[in-house]
From TrEMBL:
Residues 2-238, 239-494 form the ABC transporter domain. Keywords: ATP-binding, Nucleotide-binding, Repeat, Transport. PROSITE patterns: ABC_TRANSPORTER_1, ABC_TRANSPORTER_2. It holds the Pfam family ABC_tran. It comes from the Bacteria. Gene3D superfamilies: P-loop containing nucleotide triphosphate hydrolases (3.40.50.300). This is Ribose transport system ATP-binding protein. GO terms for molecular function: ATP binding. InterPro entries: AAA+_ATPase (IPR003593), ABC_carbohydrate_import_ATPase (IPR050107), ABC_transporter-like_ATP-bd (IPR003439), ABC_transporter-like_CS (IPR017871), P-loop_NTPase (IPR027417). The lineage of its organism: Bacteria, Bacillati, Bacillota, Erysipelotrichia, Erysipelotrichales. It comes from Breznakia pachnodae.
Length: 504
Protein backbone atom coordinates (compact mmCIF):
# COMPACT_ATOMS: atom_id res chain seq x y z
CA UNK A 1 0.00 0.00 0.00
CA UNK A 2 1.15 3.55 -0.76
CA UNK A 3 0.29 6.26 1.76
CA UNK A 4 0.99 9.87 0.86
CA UNK A 5 0.62 11.94 4.05
CA UNK A 6 0.27 15.69 4.57
CA UNK A 7 1.82 16.55 1.20
CA UNK A 8 2.41 20.28 0.55
CA UNK A 9 3.89 21.84 -2.55
CA UNK A 10 4.22 25.44 -3.77
CA UNK A 11 5.50 26.92 -7.01
CA UNK A 12 6.78 30.31 -5.92
CA UNK A 13 3.97 31.86 -3.91
CA UNK A 14 1.38 29.55 -5.49
CA UNK A 15 0.37 26.87 -2.98
CA UNK A 16 -0.59 23.97 -5.26
CA UNK A 17 -0.94 21.12 -2.75
CA UNK A 18 -2.14 21.87 0.76
CA UNK A 19 -1.83 19.02 3.26
CA UNK A 20 -3.01 16.27 0.91
CA UNK A 21 -3.40 12.62 1.91
CA UNK A 22 -3.76 9.82 -0.63
CA UNK A 23 -3.88 6.04 -0.17
CA UNK A 24 -3.37 3.53 -2.98
CA UNK A 25 -4.08 -0.15 -2.34
CA UNK A 26 -2.63 -3.14 -4.21
CA UNK A 27 -5.11 -4.78 -6.54
CA UNK A 28 -7.39 -1.72 -6.56
CA UNK A 29 -7.96 1.09 -9.05
CA UNK A 30 -8.06 4.55 -7.50
CA UNK A 31 -9.51 7.49 -9.44
CA UNK A 32 -7.68 10.76 -8.82
CA UNK A 33 -10.11 13.52 -9.74
CA UNK A 34 -10.21 17.30 -9.74
CA UNK A 35 -10.65 20.40 -11.84
CA UNK A 36 -7.93 21.58 -14.19
CA UNK A 37 -5.13 22.92 -12.07
CA UNK A 38 -6.38 21.18 -8.89
CA UNK A 39 -2.94 19.60 -8.37
CA UNK A 40 -3.39 15.99 -9.61
CA UNK A 41 -0.32 15.87 -11.86
CA UNK A 42 1.79 17.68 -9.26
CA UNK A 43 0.83 15.09 -6.63
CA UNK A 44 1.64 12.25 -9.03
CA UNK A 45 4.90 13.91 -10.04
CA UNK A 46 5.87 13.82 -6.37
CA UNK A 47 4.99 10.12 -6.16
CA UNK A 48 6.82 9.46 -9.43
CA UNK A 49 10.00 11.21 -8.27
CA UNK A 50 9.70 14.02 -10.85
CA UNK A 51 9.16 16.68 -8.16
CA UNK A 52 9.97 16.86 -4.46
CA UNK A 53 7.32 17.85 -1.95
CA UNK A 54 7.93 20.79 0.42
CA UNK A 55 6.38 18.89 3.29
CA UNK A 56 4.81 15.50 4.04
CA UNK A 57 5.92 11.91 3.52
CA UNK A 58 5.40 8.84 1.37
CA UNK A 59 5.04 5.48 3.10
CA UNK A 60 5.35 2.34 0.97
CA UNK A 61 4.24 -0.92 2.58
CA UNK A 62 4.83 0.54 6.03
CA UNK A 63 8.24 2.08 5.30
CA UNK A 64 8.93 5.73 4.63
CA UNK A 65 10.55 6.30 1.23
CA UNK A 66 12.02 9.35 -0.48
CA UNK A 67 12.16 9.84 -4.21
CA UNK A 68 14.40 12.46 -5.77
CA UNK A 69 14.38 11.05 -9.32
CA UNK A 70 11.90 9.03 -11.43
CA UNK A 71 14.28 6.06 -11.44
CA UNK A 72 14.23 5.94 -7.62
CA UNK A 73 10.44 5.72 -7.71
CA UNK A 74 10.51 3.11 -10.49
CA UNK A 75 13.09 1.14 -8.53
CA UNK A 76 10.54 0.86 -5.71
CA UNK A 77 7.94 -0.46 -8.15
CA UNK A 78 6.04 2.71 -9.08
CA UNK A 79 5.68 3.37 -12.83
CA UNK A 80 4.27 6.58 -14.29
CA UNK A 81 2.55 6.50 -17.69
CA UNK A 82 2.30 10.13 -18.70
CA UNK A 83 -0.54 11.54 -20.77
CA UNK A 84 1.83 12.19 -23.66
CA UNK A 85 3.28 8.74 -24.19
CA UNK A 86 7.04 8.30 -24.06
CA UNK A 87 7.51 5.96 -27.03
CA UNK A 88 9.82 6.37 -30.01
CA UNK A 89 7.75 5.94 -33.15
CA UNK A 90 10.64 4.94 -35.39
CA UNK A 91 11.75 1.99 -33.30
CA UNK A 92 10.11 -1.44 -33.06
CA UNK A 93 8.02 -2.30 -30.05
CA UNK A 94 10.62 -4.54 -28.39
CA UNK A 95 13.32 -1.83 -28.53
CA UNK A 96 10.91 0.62 -26.93
CA UNK A 97 10.25 -1.93 -24.20
CA UNK A 98 13.94 -1.98 -23.28
CA UNK A 99 14.86 1.66 -23.86
CA UNK A 100 17.87 2.54 -21.69
CA UNK A 101 17.60 -0.94 -20.21
CA UNK A 102 18.73 -2.97 -23.23
CA UNK A 103 19.82 -6.60 -22.98
CA UNK A 104 23.33 -6.97 -24.41
CA UNK A 105 25.01 -10.01 -25.96
CA UNK A 106 28.42 -8.56 -25.38
CA UNK A 107 30.03 -5.14 -25.12
CA UNK A 108 29.27 -4.35 -28.75
CA UNK A 109 25.90 -5.80 -29.66
CA UNK A 110 22.39 -6.11 -28.32
CA UNK A 111 20.61 -9.40 -27.76
CA UNK A 112 17.64 -8.74 -30.05
CA UNK A 113 16.24 -12.27 -29.79
CA UNK A 114 16.18 -12.17 -26.00
CA UNK A 115 14.47 -8.78 -26.01
CA UNK A 116 11.87 -10.01 -28.52
CA UNK A 117 11.29 -13.17 -26.49
CA UNK A 118 10.89 -11.31 -23.18
CA UNK A 119 8.54 -8.81 -24.80
CA UNK A 120 6.46 -11.68 -26.18
CA UNK A 121 6.33 -13.29 -22.73
CA UNK A 122 4.97 -10.16 -21.10
CA UNK A 123 2.43 -9.69 -23.94
CA UNK A 124 1.31 -13.30 -23.44
CA UNK A 125 0.89 -12.68 -19.72
CA UNK A 126 -1.32 -9.69 -20.46
CA UNK A 127 -2.98 -11.46 -23.43
CA UNK A 128 -1.96 -8.63 -25.75
CA UNK A 129 -2.05 -9.72 -29.36
CA UNK A 130 0.84 -7.69 -30.77
CA UNK A 131 4.00 -8.51 -32.70
CA UNK A 132 7.05 -7.33 -30.69
CA UNK A 133 8.77 -6.52 -33.99
CA UNK A 134 6.03 -4.13 -35.19
CA UNK A 135 7.08 -0.50 -35.55
CA UNK A 136 5.50 1.75 -32.91
CA UNK A 137 4.51 4.20 -35.68
CA UNK A 138 2.20 1.52 -37.13
CA UNK A 139 0.24 1.06 -33.88
CA UNK A 140 -3.03 2.71 -33.06
CA UNK A 141 -3.32 4.71 -29.84
CA UNK A 142 -4.63 1.90 -27.63
CA UNK A 143 -1.79 -0.43 -28.57
CA UNK A 144 0.69 2.31 -27.73
CA UNK A 145 -0.94 2.44 -24.29
CA UNK A 146 -0.54 -1.35 -24.04
CA UNK A 147 3.17 -1.07 -24.82
CA UNK A 148 3.58 1.52 -22.06
CA UNK A 149 1.66 -0.67 -19.61
CA UNK A 150 3.67 -3.77 -20.58
CA UNK A 151 6.89 -1.78 -20.18
CA UNK A 152 5.83 -0.72 -16.69
CA UNK A 153 5.19 -4.36 -15.79
CA UNK A 154 8.50 -5.45 -17.28
CA UNK A 155 10.14 -3.11 -14.80
CA UNK A 156 8.29 -5.02 -12.07
CA UNK A 157 5.92 -2.15 -11.26
CA UNK A 158 3.53 -2.94 -8.42
CA UNK A 159 1.81 0.41 -8.85
CA UNK A 160 1.05 2.20 -12.10
CA UNK A 161 0.04 5.85 -12.42
CA UNK A 162 -2.01 6.41 -15.59
CA UNK A 163 -2.50 10.09 -16.40
CA UNK A 164 -5.62 10.46 -18.57
CA UNK A 165 -4.93 7.29 -20.59
CA UNK A 166 -8.20 7.39 -22.51
CA UNK A 167 -8.25 11.03 -23.65
CA UNK A 168 -7.47 10.31 -27.30
CA UNK A 169 -9.09 6.87 -27.50
CA UNK A 170 -12.46 5.89 -28.93
CA UNK A 171 -15.00 3.46 -27.36
CA UNK A 172 -13.66 0.03 -28.35
CA UNK A 173 -10.05 1.06 -27.65
CA UNK A 174 -11.01 2.32 -24.20
CA UNK A 175 -12.61 -1.06 -23.48
CA UNK A 176 -9.36 -2.77 -24.55
CA UNK A 177 -7.34 -0.63 -22.14
CA UNK A 178 -9.87 -1.36 -19.39
CA UNK A 179 -9.55 -5.09 -20.13
CA UNK A 180 -5.81 -4.87 -19.47
CA UNK A 181 -6.39 -2.80 -16.32
CA UNK A 182 -8.73 -5.48 -14.98
CA UNK A 183 -6.07 -8.13 -15.62
CA UNK A 184 -3.49 -6.01 -13.77
CA UNK A 185 -5.87 -5.74 -10.83
CA UNK A 186 -6.10 -9.52 -10.67
CA UNK A 187 -2.30 -9.61 -10.58
CA UNK A 188 -2.48 -7.37 -7.50
CA UNK A 189 -1.14 -4.26 -9.22
CA UNK A 190 -2.46 -0.99 -7.75
CA UNK A 191 -3.47 1.63 -10.32
CA UNK A 192 -4.00 5.38 -10.02
CA UNK A 193 -6.28 6.50 -12.83
CA UNK A 194 -6.46 10.24 -13.56
CA UNK A 195 -9.45 11.12 -15.72
CA UNK A 196 -12.06 13.77 -16.40
CA UNK A 197 -14.46 11.17 -17.82
CA UNK A 198 -16.65 10.33 -14.86
CA UNK A 199 -18.65 7.54 -16.50
CA UNK A 200 -15.36 5.74 -17.09
CA UNK A 201 -14.36 6.30 -13.49
CA UNK A 202 -17.60 4.66 -12.36
CA UNK A 203 -16.97 1.72 -14.69
CA UNK A 204 -13.37 0.89 -13.86
CA UNK A 205 -12.40 2.36 -10.48
CA UNK A 206 -12.88 0.96 -6.98
CA UNK A 207 -12.10 4.12 -5.01
CA UNK A 208 -11.82 7.84 -5.64
CA UNK A 209 -10.05 10.86 -4.20
CA UNK A 210 -11.03 14.37 -5.26
CA UNK A 211 -8.74 17.41 -5.09
CA UNK A 212 -10.03 20.95 -5.28
CA UNK A 213 -7.67 23.95 -5.24
CA UNK A 214 -4.90 21.75 -3.90
CA UNK A 215 -6.92 20.28 -1.02
CA UNK A 216 -8.34 16.80 -0.68
CA UNK A 217 -12.11 17.39 -0.50
CA UNK A 218 -13.63 13.92 -0.85
CA UNK A 219 -12.71 10.24 -1.01
CA UNK A 220 -14.55 6.94 -0.85
CA UNK A 221 -15.75 3.94 -2.84
CA UNK A 222 -17.10 4.51 -6.33
CA UNK A 223 -19.95 2.06 -5.69
CA UNK A 224 -21.43 4.47 -3.17
CA UNK A 225 -21.38 7.57 -5.40
CA UNK A 226 -22.39 8.66 -8.91
CA UNK A 227 -20.95 10.89 -11.67
CA UNK A 228 -23.17 13.80 -10.65
CA UNK A 229 -21.91 13.76 -7.07
CA UNK A 230 -18.28 13.37 -8.20
CA UNK A 231 -18.66 16.39 -10.52
CA UNK A 232 -20.06 18.39 -7.63
CA UNK A 233 -17.08 17.49 -5.42
CA UNK A 234 -14.72 18.51 -8.21
CA UNK A 235 -16.11 21.96 -8.95
CA UNK A 236 -17.80 22.73 -5.63
CA UNK A 237 -21.27 23.28 -7.09
CA UNK A 238 -23.96 21.53 -9.15
CA UNK A 239 -22.99 20.70 -12.75
CA UNK A 240 -25.78 20.62 -15.32
CA UNK A 241 -26.21 17.64 -17.63
CA UNK A 242 -29.13 18.68 -19.83
CA UNK A 243 -29.23 18.93 -23.61
CA UNK A 244 -27.85 22.29 -24.72
CA UNK A 245 -28.36 22.64 -28.45
CA UNK A 246 -31.10 24.81 -29.89
CA UNK A 247 -33.18 24.22 -32.99
CA UNK A 248 -31.83 25.73 -36.18
CA UNK A 249 -34.18 27.12 -38.79
CA UNK A 250 -33.92 25.08 -42.00
CA UNK A 251 -34.02 28.35 -43.94
CA UNK A 252 -30.85 29.66 -42.32
CA UNK A 253 -28.11 30.61 -44.73
CA UNK A 254 -25.58 27.89 -45.58
CA UNK A 255 -22.13 29.07 -44.46
CA UNK A 256 -19.96 26.12 -45.50
CA UNK A 257 -20.78 23.63 -48.21
CA UNK A 258 -18.61 20.71 -49.27
CA UNK A 259 -19.27 18.66 -52.40
CA UNK A 260 -17.80 15.26 -53.21
CA UNK A 261 -14.55 15.91 -51.38
CA UNK A 262 -11.94 13.14 -51.63
CA UNK A 263 -8.22 12.72 -51.16
CA UNK A 264 -6.19 9.72 -52.23
CA UNK A 265 -6.39 7.67 -49.10
CA UNK A 266 -8.23 9.04 -46.06
CA UNK A 267 -11.71 10.05 -47.16
CA UNK A 268 -13.96 9.74 -50.19
CA UNK A 269 -16.95 11.46 -51.69
CA UNK A 270 -17.77 13.66 -48.70
CA UNK A 271 -20.67 16.11 -49.08
CA UNK A 272 -22.30 18.15 -46.33
CA UNK A 273 -23.26 21.68 -45.40
CA UNK A 274 -23.27 23.74 -42.21
CA UNK A 275 -25.84 26.49 -41.70
CA UNK A 276 -25.64 29.70 -39.77
CA UNK A 277 -26.15 29.15 -36.01
CA UNK A 278 -25.62 25.43 -36.42
CA UNK A 279 -23.31 23.18 -34.41
CA UNK A 280 -22.60 20.16 -36.62
CA UNK A 281 -21.17 17.09 -34.90
CA UNK A 282 -18.76 14.69 -36.59
CA UNK A 283 -18.01 11.42 -34.88
CA UNK A 284 -16.83 7.88 -35.55
CA UNK A 285 -14.08 5.56 -34.44
CA UNK A 286 -10.35 5.44 -35.00
CA UNK A 287 -9.50 5.34 -38.71
CA UNK A 288 -12.74 7.06 -39.75
CA UNK A 289 -10.81 9.82 -41.58
CA UNK A 290 -12.54 12.73 -39.85
CA UNK A 291 -9.39 14.53 -38.68
CA UNK A 292 -7.80 14.13 -42.12
CA UNK A 293 -10.96 15.47 -43.78
CA UNK A 294 -11.05 18.60 -41.65
CA UNK A 295 -7.30 19.12 -41.81
CA UNK A 296 -7.84 19.27 -45.58
CA UNK A 297 -10.46 21.96 -45.09
CA UNK A 298 -7.80 23.79 -43.09
CA UNK A 299 -5.32 23.62 -45.96
CA UNK A 300 -3.14 20.75 -44.79
CA UNK A 301 -3.52 18.59 -47.93
CA UNK A 302 -4.07 20.77 -51.00
CA UNK A 303 -4.42 17.95 -53.54
CA UNK A 304 -8.02 17.13 -52.78
CA UNK A 305 -10.77 16.74 -55.37
CA UNK A 306 -14.26 18.14 -54.97
CA UNK A 307 -15.58 21.59 -54.18
CA UNK A 308 -15.76 23.82 -51.11
CA UNK A 309 -18.09 26.83 -50.89
CA UNK A 310 -18.04 29.56 -48.25
CA UNK A 311 -21.15 31.74 -48.20
CA UNK A 312 -22.10 30.45 -51.69
CA UNK A 313 -18.73 31.33 -53.18
CA UNK A 314 -16.38 28.54 -54.26
CA UNK A 315 -13.03 28.68 -52.49
CA UNK A 316 -9.86 26.72 -53.10
CA UNK A 317 -8.00 25.88 -49.91
CA UNK A 318 -4.44 25.47 -51.10
CA UNK A 319 -2.70 25.87 -47.77
CA UNK A 320 -3.25 26.95 -44.20
CA UNK A 321 -2.78 30.56 -45.19
CA UNK A 322 -5.75 30.38 -47.57
CA UNK A 323 -7.85 28.70 -44.86
CA UNK A 324 -7.04 31.55 -42.47
CA UNK A 325 -7.69 34.08 -45.21
CA UNK A 326 -11.18 32.57 -45.57
CA UNK A 327 -11.73 32.85 -41.81
CA UNK A 328 -11.61 29.12 -41.16
CA UNK A 329 -10.19 28.22 -37.75
CA UNK A 330 -9.08 24.80 -36.56
CA UNK A 331 -8.48 23.71 -32.97
CA UNK A 332 -6.49 20.51 -33.48
CA UNK A 333 -6.41 17.35 -31.41
CA UNK A 334 -3.20 16.40 -29.69
CA UNK A 335 -2.43 19.64 -27.92
CA UNK A 336 1.25 19.06 -27.23
CA UNK A 337 2.24 18.19 -30.80
CA UNK A 338 -0.09 20.40 -32.80
CA UNK A 339 -1.51 23.21 -30.75
CA UNK A 340 0.87 24.79 -28.26
CA UNK A 341 4.28 26.29 -28.86
CA UNK A 342 6.05 25.26 -25.71
CA UNK A 343 8.85 27.85 -25.92
CA UNK A 344 6.35 30.70 -26.05
CA UNK A 345 4.54 32.29 -23.14
CA UNK A 346 0.81 32.23 -22.44
CA UNK A 347 0.05 35.58 -24.09
CA UNK A 348 2.01 34.72 -27.24
CA UNK A 349 0.28 31.35 -27.54
CA UNK A 350 -3.13 32.87 -26.92
CA UNK A 351 -2.82 35.66 -29.49
CA UNK A 352 -0.63 34.13 -32.19
CA UNK A 353 -3.26 34.00 -34.92
CA UNK A 354 -4.69 37.47 -34.29
CA UNK A 355 -1.36 39.34 -34.00
CA UNK A 356 -2.05 41.28 -37.21
CA UNK A 357 -4.90 43.09 -35.48
CA UNK A 358 -2.65 44.46 -32.77
CA UNK A 359 0.06 45.77 -35.12
CA UNK A 360 0.54 49.44 -35.93
CA UNK A 361 1.39 50.71 -39.42
CA UNK A 362 5.04 49.84 -38.92
CA UNK A 363 4.11 46.28 -38.01
CA UNK A 364 4.93 46.72 -34.34
CA UNK A 365 2.64 45.00 -31.86
CA UNK A 366 0.59 47.25 -29.57
CA UNK A 367 1.07 45.25 -26.40
CA UNK A 368 -1.72 46.99 -24.53
CA UNK A 369 -4.32 46.00 -27.15
CA UNK A 370 -2.94 42.46 -27.34
CA UNK A 371 -3.20 42.07 -23.53
CA UNK A 372 -6.65 43.67 -23.44
CA UNK A 373 -8.13 41.25 -26.01
CA UNK A 374 -6.49 38.22 -24.44
CA UNK A 375 -7.77 39.30 -21.01
CA UNK A 376 -11.38 39.12 -22.30
CA UNK A 377 -10.90 35.54 -23.50
CA UNK A 378 -9.08 34.65 -20.28
CA UNK A 379 -12.10 35.82 -18.29
CA UNK A 380 -14.66 34.16 -20.59
CA UNK A 381 -12.83 30.83 -20.53
CA UNK A 382 -11.94 31.15 -16.84
CA UNK A 383 -8.28 30.32 -17.48
CA UNK A 384 -6.38 29.64 -14.26
CA UNK A 385 -2.93 31.11 -14.77
CA UNK A 386 -0.25 33.32 -13.27
CA UNK A 387 1.31 36.05 -15.41
CA UNK A 388 0.86 36.48 -19.17
CA UNK A 389 4.62 36.11 -19.48
CA UNK A 390 4.74 32.63 -17.87
CA UNK A 391 5.54 29.79 -20.25
CA UNK A 392 2.47 27.95 -21.53
CA UNK A 393 3.98 24.73 -20.18
CA UNK A 394 3.65 26.03 -16.62
CA UNK A 395 -0.14 25.63 -16.94
CA UNK A 396 -2.10 22.48 -16.19
CA UNK A 397 -3.15 20.49 -19.28
CA UNK A 398 -6.74 21.72 -19.26
CA UNK A 399 -5.74 25.35 -18.94
CA UNK A 400 -3.31 24.96 -21.85
CA UNK A 401 -6.26 23.69 -23.89
CA UNK A 402 -8.23 26.81 -22.98
CA UNK A 403 -5.37 29.05 -24.15
CA UNK A 404 -5.41 27.19 -27.48
CA UNK A 405 -9.14 27.82 -27.72
CA UNK A 406 -8.66 31.50 -26.96
CA UNK A 407 -6.12 31.75 -29.79
CA UNK A 408 -8.70 30.60 -32.31
CA UNK A 409 -11.62 32.51 -30.81
CA UNK A 410 -9.56 35.71 -31.10
CA UNK A 411 -9.16 35.03 -34.84
CA UNK A 412 -12.94 35.72 -35.13
CA UNK A 413 -13.64 32.87 -37.54
CA UNK A 414 -16.66 32.30 -39.81
CA UNK A 415 -16.13 28.55 -39.65
CA UNK A 416 -14.74 27.06 -36.46
CA UNK A 417 -13.58 23.44 -36.60
CA UNK A 418 -12.98 21.95 -33.16
CA UNK A 419 -11.24 18.57 -33.02
CA UNK A 420 -11.88 17.05 -29.56
CA UNK A 421 -11.79 20.52 -27.96
CA UNK A 422 -12.55 19.32 -24.44
CA UNK A 423 -9.69 16.80 -24.27
CA UNK A 424 -8.24 16.95 -20.76
CA UNK A 425 -10.77 19.63 -19.74
CA UNK A 426 -12.63 19.21 -16.44
CA UNK A 427 -16.41 18.83 -16.12
CA UNK A 428 -17.06 22.44 -15.09
CA UNK A 429 -14.84 23.96 -17.77
CA UNK A 430 -16.42 21.71 -20.40
CA UNK A 431 -19.74 23.41 -19.71
CA UNK A 432 -18.09 26.84 -20.10
CA UNK A 433 -16.67 25.75 -23.46
CA UNK A 434 -20.06 24.45 -24.59
CA UNK A 435 -21.60 27.82 -23.68
CA UNK A 436 -18.98 29.62 -25.72
CA UNK A 437 -19.63 27.29 -28.68
CA UNK A 438 -23.33 28.13 -28.55
CA UNK A 439 -22.74 31.85 -28.15
CA UNK A 440 -20.53 31.79 -31.25
CA UNK A 441 -23.13 29.78 -33.15
CA UNK A 442 -25.73 32.34 -32.11
CA UNK A 443 -23.47 35.06 -33.52
CA UNK A 444 -23.54 33.27 -36.89
CA UNK A 445 -20.32 31.23 -36.79
CA UNK A 446 -20.69 27.79 -38.36
CA UNK A 447 -19.33 25.32 -35.84
CA UNK A 448 -18.08 21.83 -36.62
CA UNK A 449 -17.42 19.74 -33.53
CA UNK A 450 -15.36 16.57 -33.96
CA UNK A 451 -15.65 14.38 -30.90
CA UNK A 452 -14.96 10.85 -29.70
CA UNK A 453 -17.60 11.21 -27.02
CA UNK A 454 -21.13 10.39 -28.13
CA UNK A 455 -22.57 12.23 -25.12
CA UNK A 456 -20.73 15.42 -26.04
CA UNK A 457 -22.22 15.25 -29.53
CA UNK A 458 -25.71 14.45 -28.25
CA UNK A 459 -25.73 17.32 -25.77
CA UNK A 460 -24.20 20.04 -27.92
CA UNK A 461 -24.91 19.41 -31.61
CA UNK A 462 -28.00 20.04 -33.72
CA UNK A 463 -27.17 17.04 -35.87
CA UNK A 464 -24.23 14.74 -36.43
CA UNK A 465 -22.53 12.99 -39.28
CA UNK A 466 -21.07 9.61 -38.39
CA UNK A 467 -18.04 8.51 -40.37
CA UNK A 468 -16.72 5.04 -41.09
CA UNK A 469 -13.55 4.26 -43.03
CA UNK A 470 -13.40 7.67 -44.72
CA UNK A 471 -17.06 7.89 -45.72
CA UNK A 472 -20.15 9.41 -44.19
CA UNK A 473 -22.03 6.37 -42.93
CA UNK A 474 -25.10 8.34 -41.89
CA UNK A 475 -26.61 11.47 -40.41
CA UNK A 476 -28.54 11.65 -37.15
CA UNK A 477 -30.61 14.46 -35.65
CA UNK A 478 -33.09 15.06 -32.85
CA UNK A 479 -34.14 11.99 -30.88
CA UNK A 480 -32.25 9.77 -33.35
CA UNK A 481 -28.98 11.10 -31.98
CA UNK A 482 -28.36 8.47 -29.31
CA UNK A 483 -25.42 6.32 -28.24
CA UNK A 484 -26.80 3.19 -29.84
CA UNK A 485 -27.41 4.66 -33.28
CA UNK A 486 -24.11 6.53 -33.27
CA UNK A 487 -22.24 3.31 -32.47
CA UNK A 488 -24.21 1.36 -35.09
CA UNK A 489 -23.13 3.78 -37.82
CA UNK A 490 -19.60 4.17 -36.45
CA UNK A 491 -19.01 0.43 -36.73
CA UNK A 492 -20.12 0.39 -40.36
CA UNK A 493 -23.66 -0.98 -39.97
CA UNK A 494 -26.80 0.51 -41.44
CA UNK A 495 -29.48 2.08 -39.30
CA UNK A 496 -32.12 -0.48 -40.25
CA UNK A 497 -29.97 -3.02 -38.33
CA UNK A 498 -30.05 -0.78 -35.25
CA UNK A 499 -33.81 -0.41 -35.50
CA UNK A 500 -34.24 -4.17 -35.81
CA UNK A 501 -32.05 -4.77 -32.77
CA UNK A 502 -34.00 -2.21 -30.76
CA UNK A 503 -37.34 -3.75 -31.68
CA UNK A 504 -36.19 -7.32 -30.94
N1 LIG B 1 6.40 23.61 -13.17
C1 LIG B 1 5.47 24.46 -12.75
N2 LIG B 1 5.75 25.75 -12.49
C2 LIG B 1 4.80 26.60 -12.03
N3 LIG B 1 3.52 26.24 -11.80
C3 LIG B 1 3.18 24.97 -12.03
C4 LIG B 1 4.14 24.01 -12.52
N4 LIG B 1 3.51 22.81 -12.66
C5 LIG B 1 2.23 23.02 -12.27
N5 LIG B 1 2.04 24.30 -11.90
C6 LIG B 1 0.79 24.89 -11.40
O1 LIG B 1 0.28 24.04 -10.39
C7 LIG B 1 -1.13 23.97 -10.45
C8 LIG B 1 -1.57 22.52 -10.47
O2 LIG B 1 -1.22 21.97 -11.71
P1 LIG B 1 -1.42 20.43 -12.06
O3 LIG B 1 -0.78 20.19 -13.39
O4 LIG B 1 -0.96 19.61 -10.92
O5 LIG B 1 -3.01 20.36 -12.18
P2 LIG B 1 -3.93 19.14 -12.64
O6 LIG B 1 -4.90 18.89 -11.54
O7 LIG B 1 -3.07 17.99 -13.04
O8 LIG B 1 -4.72 19.78 -13.88
P3 LIG B 1 -5.20 19.16 -15.32
O9 LIG B 1 -6.45 18.38 -15.08
O10 LIG B 1 -5.49 20.38 -16.13
O11 LIG B 1 -4.05 18.33 -15.87
C9 LIG B 1 -1.56 24.77 -11.67
O12 LIG B 1 -1.99 26.03 -11.23
C10 LIG B 1 -0.29 24.89 -12.49
O13 LIG B 1 -0.29 26.09 -13.22
Amino acid sequence: MIEMKNICKSFGSNLVLDDVDLNVESGKILALLGENGAGKSTLMNILGGVLSSDQGKIVLDGQEVQFHTPSQSLHKGIAFIHQELNLINDLPVYENMFLSNEIKKNRFSLDMNKMIQETQEIFDKLQIDLDPKAMVSSLDASYKQFVEIARALMMNANYIIMDEPTTSLTGPEIERVFGIMRKLKKQDVGIIFISHKLEEVMEICDNYTVLRNGKMVACGETKSTNPHELAKHMVGHEVRSDVLHREVDDNNKVVLKVEKLSNDKDFEDISFEVKEKEVLGITGLLGDGRSELFLTLFGDTPNYTGKVYLNDKEIKIKNIHSALHNDIAYVPKNRKENAIISDMNILENGTLVSLGRYANKLGMIKKEKQCEEFEKEKQALNIKMGKNSDLITSLSGGNQQKVVLSKWLLSRPKVLILDNPTQGVDVGSKEEIYDIIHELAEQGVAIILLSNEAQEIIRTCNRTLVMFHGKIQGELRGADMNDHKIMTLATGSKLENANNEVSQ
